[in-house]
Amino acid sequence: MQSQDAGPPSPTPSAAGPVVDVGRAEAALVEHYPRLVRLAYLVLPSGRGRSRRVLTAHALVQRALPRDRTPAPPVPVQRAGRPGDPGYALVRLRVLRTALGRGGRLPSPLPRVWGLKLFPRSGGADELALDQRLSELSGPARAAHALRALERLPDGEVREVLAAAGVTGVDAALEEADGIPDPYRLLDSPGFDPCVLQARPTDLPRRRRRLQAASVGGAALAVCGTLLVLPGGGWGPDGAGSPPYARDPAARAALDPGRLTRVPPTAWRTSARTDFSVWPARGDRTDDRALLRRALAVWARPGRDVQVSATPGTPSGGPAGPPRLLYAGTVGAARVVVLYDGLRIARYAEPGDGARGAALDFARVDGADRAGSGAVVLSRTGGTVRYLLAPWVRGAGERDLRRPDSGTTDLGLVDGVTPPLAGPAPEPGPCTSWHVLELTDGTGTRLVTDLGELVPARLTTGRPGEAREASGAKALRTWAPYACSLRAMRSAGVRSVNAWAFAEQPLPGTRDEAVWVCTRAETWRGGGARVLAQFHAPGTRSGAVAAEAESVPACGEREPRVLAGVLWKSGAGEWYLLAAGGPGTTSVRATGGVEGSARGRLLAVRAGAGARADLEGSLEDGRSIGGLR
Fold it and tell me: What's the half-sphere exposure (Cβ side, CA atoms, 13 Å) at 442?
């Protein structure tokens, strides 16, 4: 790394604007830690290998907090729905400055990993080519590319950030970064995510030789360590928690029920943010320090009697600092505590009769907005669900998504808690109903559904990028035939599910039309979206899944395209291959077991029973699209 790429350490207070305290910067770091580590990983050079680069990226971010109140940088904070506070801008600037100045040198003895090499998941050919191309750029050029692609900043704001980070040749860096094609498509892939890692062993024979040479010294250290920790200081269990792992002041603060953050009941009315961070503490046990201490201890170090679950992509480690208390109370036969640390919702539950055992559940909720933070599941018992609702919810009701004309049953709330509601249809078994929760606040009415996790998923309808709440009469009729397909979305960390009616197709030999709908489940972690293409013929109550896929852009805002086909049997006993593409499809062709083509976005061709075919469509812009399978 050239020394001239890095400039002076920080701006002077007179040029910096508002002062950011350590607490605000810490909150920004915790909330956006994965994004900051990805940014550091992309800016660092790759010369020392991916494992060293991963550890260096984590070390840079973990050491990015200022030591005291620090002037906020005079640079744009963010755009387009990304983090938007001075604390985040300060931490991001410190990460960039250190990454550009340090290069591949590890700035801290921690984190360290012995015996393993850690590196991101392997990407495809495009990811490997992009990684190679980035390695050929200078550090400032890599930083410019990352700010464009990850932070979605225009070039004018990229210049300000790079200048504040000490880069002297800003224009040259931008010009060099212009050589990277398609900057927005690949950097969100797992191949560039240093928080989702694979592990491989280091040189095993060399480790064996070193272990033999160090055995005597290790035995002596073990004896000394035992003597140091034995004298009484209370390293015993806390409720269902196993023995403490550290006596660090920050860890102690996170375990202290007196340090829990409690938000005033009306804070949400004047806050710039409307999410879990402004939920007040509710429940009849918010002052039960013993219960709160047990919940925090189990979160930090769950013992053998604790059942721990987490949605995909959700870390289950202890909180970085004192979390927010959202609820502590008695729910049925259990005592329940709900906490929030800026990234996750954690729910602790223990038997109300004092029996052994506890449950600890985690759900990732980073980036939650008003619509995504309207409810949390408090308990599930006997096929029913109870929710804790956001303070801004004015009314709540229960309705059957399979019966759009059945109306809503109003729910009486007690301190924001609903009575037990019928849960969605269990598996296995018939799906005769699908009960959802209807929430009304000052911005409108929306539907959410329990998919087996702490935070219910929001239901929407409409073309990707133009989706709206699924609470209107037309939206309810759109969802009714496909409600039971939500079974396929369970326990996947789903944030929202959209139903898009992308085509209507005349049925051969009839005057009827079938409807094609694409349901797409977006996740809190960003990846792993689930897509179902469904076909609903008149006279049938439920749609049939014609194709499904995972981690594909189809039917999403980035790629509002889809093509799917199904074998359909007419009343006369004849089989047809029916296929449909979304708007923008100009032709459809079938090959393989069925041959046929058609102009436009609909295809109907006779086929044999059980025939299989490959579908390909052409788009208005000249690109091709393959059929979902």
Answer: 7
Contact 407, 441 (CB under 8 A): no
**Per-residue pLDDT reduced to its tens digit, 399-431:** 999 999 999 999 999 999 999 999 888 877 789
Strand-pair partners of 615: 590
pLDDT digits (tens, 9 = 90+) for 509-552: 999 999 999 999 999 999 899 999 999 999 898 999 999 999 99
The 8-class DSSP code of residue 217 comes to H
Phi first, then psi, for residue 144 (nearest 5°) are: -60, -45
534 three-class SS: strand
Sequence letter at residue 190:
P
**Token code pair at residue 77:** 């904070």
pTM of the model: 0.63
Tokens of 286: 């918010």
Tell me, what DSSP letter sits at residue 416?
A: T
**What's the mean pLDDT when you consider all of the chain?**
83
Partners of 261 in the beta sheet? 324
Q: How far apart are CA 483 and CA 497, in angstroms?
A: 11
pLDDT tier at 9 (50, 70, 90 boundaries)? very low
Q: Name the burial class of residue 185, with classes exposed (0-12), middle (13-18) and buried (19+) by CB atoms within 10 angstroms of its CB.
A: middle
Half-sphere exposure of 70 (CA within 13 A, CB side): 24
449 Cβ partners below 8 Å, 6+ apart? 401, 424, 434, 436, 437, 456, 457, 459, 486, 497
Asked if pLDDT for residue 102 goes beyond 90, the answer is no
Write out the DSSP string of 294-332. Answer: HHHHHHHSB-TTEEEEE-TT---SPPSS--EEEEEEEET
Residue burial 226-262, b: 16+ Cβ < 10 Å; e: rest: eeeeeeeeeeeebbbbbebeeeeeebeebbebeebbe
Provide the 3-class DSSP secondary structure of residue 340.
Answer: strand
Tokens encoding 92: 């991001």
* pLDDT per position as a tens digit, 61-98: 888 877 665 555 544 444 433 445 678 888 899 999 98
CA–CA distance, 45 with 234 (Å, rounded to integer):
46
